[in-house]
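Practice record 12: protein with L263DTV3.
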Amino acid sequence: MDSDPGQPQRLNSSQHEPNQQQRRHNHLVELPTTHNSISDSTLSSAFTRRHLEAVTPGIDLSTYFPSTSPSELARPSYFSAADPNIPPGPANSSNLVERQVPAMAAALARRESLSDIRAANPDLSLSGNIISATFTTPHALNYCKGGHWDLKARRGQSALYDSFAHLSSDATPWHHTVVAWTGEIDFPQDLPSSPPEAPTSSTTVGVSSLNALSAPVPVDGNTRLPTPPIDGLWVPREDQQRLEYQLSHSKSIRTVPVWLSDENEVNNEGITLKDQARWRRYAEHDLYTLFHYKQHEPSDGRKERVQWADYYRMNQKFANRIIEIYKPGDIVIVHDYYLMLLPSMLRQRVPNMYISFYLHSPFPSSEFLRCLPRRKEVLEGVLGANLIGFQSYSYSRHFLSCCTRILGFPSDTLGIDAYGTRVQVGVFPIGVDAAKVESYAWVDSVTEKYNTLKKMYEGKKIIVGRDRLDSVRGVAQKLQAFERFLELYPEWREQVVLIQVTTPTTVEAEKEDAENKIASRVNELVMKINGQYGSLGFSPVQHYPQYLDQDEYFALLRAGDIGLITSVRDGMNTTSLEYIICQKDLHGPLILSEFSGTAGSLGDAIHINPWDLSGVAEKIHLALTMSAEKRMAMQNSLYRHVTSHNVQSWITKFVRKVYTVLGDSNLVNATPLLDRALMLSRYRSAGKRLFMFDYDGTLTPIVSEPSAAVPSERIINALRVLADDPKNAVWIISGRDQDFLKHHLGHIQKMGFSAEHGSFMKSPGSDEWENLAEKFDMGWQEEVLKVFQKYTDMATGSFIERKRCALTWHYRLADPELGLQLSRECEKELSAGVARHWDVEVMPGKANVEVRPTFINKGEIIKRLVQTYHSSGTSSEDKESGKVEFALCMGDDFTDEDMFRSLNGFSGPVLDPDHVFTVTVGASTKVTLARWHLLEPEDVIECVALLAGSEEGMQLGEVNLAALSSVEGHIPEKAVL
Ligand SMILES: O=P(O)(O)OC[C@H]1O[C@H](O[C@H]2O[C@H](CO)[C@@H](O)[C@H](O)[C@H]2O)[C@H](O)[C@@H](O)[C@@H]1O
């Protein structure tokens, strides 16, 4: 093996070793890619065989796995926790731990039992199950000929998968299940990714997918018959079941796969393309980018809508899958930005579910998040969780401020009041499996490569870097800083080598960028530096654009004199943690970007600003010249941190925090975000529907001047569409007087009205107003007016709204503090005076105080309406007979609670509770009798338009807008109304 340090070369003499030409130019040419220490196919075969042996005793598997040798089965791998070759269970893992990290072994020895946990949390009914939802399964899947599955270790996220392995092991008391998408399934060329073409009686010409299903059985006996797809993925059901069985019986990580369709698309040339990557597109294109403080030009809105729809649908599929396996008392942990809608979707289905969310990536400041078109939905989605965890304090602080600034939710440093409950926020920096790193980093094969490396660069200092080729990893900055270092410190020229390994990105949005810009920028810089500071015998930058295998990786980390991490933004940099472990004896300093999520935890590393090239250069010099004592002190402290804050302690602390938070949460008052998709489906299946809308603060936003609260065109049109449908009875139930309602909404002939909190009623289609307070003595009004006038005189800007029956004193335009104080006094005075000798109720409203007869209220109107519309008849064609099969009631204030109370009374005995939607609008902190929550009138309008659009879309025979809307969670504004 050529050991000339001047020649870039691979670190071993494997079959992948490049030829001489490649060596000379390896910074320009991508070398043949190697994989983890066990090649993908070997690993997968080993895995599959091991599992099938476990689950199918007695079956000879040798024909399926002809190439799996016993040594392959036995060989360990660090890179994937999902690798079944890592011995599972307490005996193996704790032995390892005890040998390697005594502190951790002691911690694990203090394993809590479930009964201890239950005893310490008597208010919770913990089942002992944890469901972890993560985007992709710990294994990449290969669908093989013959319908068998080959499983490969998935690259990346090793810390997360290690935490799953830990939770699944006997080292914890939990019964753990991972729910995850299969990921893009690798199909062999000769297997159909869509239904195979079936022969017709006279010809073998292909038929459409639909016909293929009903086509005659092929007679050759070889053609695999298409079965109806699960969501369009053309994997026969028995093969899906085979995989599900295999994954669910895994001893290392029990996994339940989520099947998502690959929904083939036909391109302009009529060629069918598989597009399995669509499910990651929104998350990786929009969220990942923005969370890393980057923005791309908006594309045409249509593409974005489709990506959002896929994201929404993908999250829904996860929710469905979790609900299938969920049992009361289970703890659900949702991981990362792919699944940000999932917490709310779960909360909507099971309001008292124990849900937590952990973000592995950074979270940006509100100034950045504001640029995300779906910012509100994304924040609302996560807020379905009881606990939200972040990698670093600044990410959690940004999140809190986004909730307050974008959603208007009250927050403090510990959490947010949302949807009638408290959502807690915490910082839990992830770690790595330190014991595992130690056990693999010093095996003979690594030491051999380490020795080779050291020999290769004898007499030189080695700076190591291993990054993904993402723009956020700062590889270009690293090279520029190194260049600056060589410029500023000529004495180090030819004395220092930077070995930079750059792995391909897996993030969709980065791929294009990476291929086009970053890769060429990095190559340019490597050439420039080597051209300027290199010689015939030596190139100062050794760039390896490739995956490293496990042995090479650890050998490199051990061989480094400096670890250099210059990411301009990352959630957690696990390479830095692994470097620290690998340097436990040699104490090579770690130079770490302050923009890495790890920086907050590794206070003893040398922190740098990667944008300050001279500053980084100085720190490289400092690290190279640091005394041995100082390096040792620094490294020892970092080592202690990394080994005690490992991935096992991370997940243990997080889970512990989940149940502590649950003990503090008031889940009884939780009011989930309205499940629009559910509402729409119930609406569409109902023969007879009843709508009851409050007006101010529900259909229109609250404004300072009552006369300015006019309905928008959009809501008028939507209400009209709903009211025109013979299946619907639509009512406005408001504190407003008849004139106001008539003026703004009276032209919707088929709508019913109740004015002044139930004092007056006008049925749909009628011109007559019924006065329900007719017989009531109005003598109280004079007394109330006197009191109101007194307060009006005291608060400049306040005024009295005089209606026919109800009276309102408004103080919104007065000084806010004085107004509030006087309103309390006014309410007290009226309650102690006029309300004692008249049968009237004094109600504090939104910057108002209202008085009306007690027996008249919105709840009474609801009773009348249900009694009127709900009859035991069966015809659903007219309003005179038939059962109400869908009821939607929306309101925002105290007076609307009467409506919810009444409807709740009917839910069960009269109306099917699953078909009654009571929705409160407004403050996230609100304690309400409503079952659902919406944030503001704009959301109400979206929902009303969604229902109206659903019918209209179908009537017009257009694209089924409702179907699109339901997956998108909103209705296209212009297209429908
Ligand atoms: O039952 P509602 O339809 O919600 O009506 C309740 C009262 O709403 C109006 O006042 C409130 O809205 C105004 C416009 O946004 C706002 O300026 C005022 O401060 C609020 O109190 C209306 O003026 C009252 O008559 C209704 O009783």
